[in-house]
Request: fold
Amino acid sequence: MKALVIYCHPNPDSFTSAVKDLVLEVLEEKGFNTRLTDLYGERFNPLIHKEELESYLDTTCNQKGLENHIGNIMWCDTLIFVYPTWWYGLPAMLKGWLDRCFLPGVAFHMPEGKGTVKPGLKHITRLGLFTTAGATPLVTFLMGAPGKRTILRAVKSLCKWPVKKVFLAHYEMDSSTDESRRLHLERVRVKMHKFLS
Reply:
């Protein structure tokens, strides 16, 4: 049981960080071998440069400089994202990580000629998403929830079918209270235990 947690928040004292800590705690309780990728903590560069884009489809060299991240992705059977929802979507840092690391030959395989890409993450059997959002659930839904869809539809489509998934969001964070945050952390614990059982 091998879990990779992708954490994306610039403030180590944020509520999102508390959610991440709880996710890691439950993984440890359940006996998972766990790796954490803290994108801001390691100052991950989300930018794709011209040379990198030109070699994007070349699976013999498109992983250059990203070997550690690619290795973690290919190592895990459980992938969990913890991040704040900004503008209804993924933080730019996390979107850049997906752009750079979910490569041809890694996350998917290009078809020969016409056709659709083939999943490359069939070793991933669990996919989790824990987020916060300033908006209400209704407004997020009306905006299409692009961040949630990116993870729980696009990334999910590359994983083993059927993949076990979990989603939980604390909405209206700007007006959250100590009690709402405490209750949310309790829900995170319950969801994680069910997700990993």
User: Anything to note?
Assistant: The chain has one domain: 2-196.
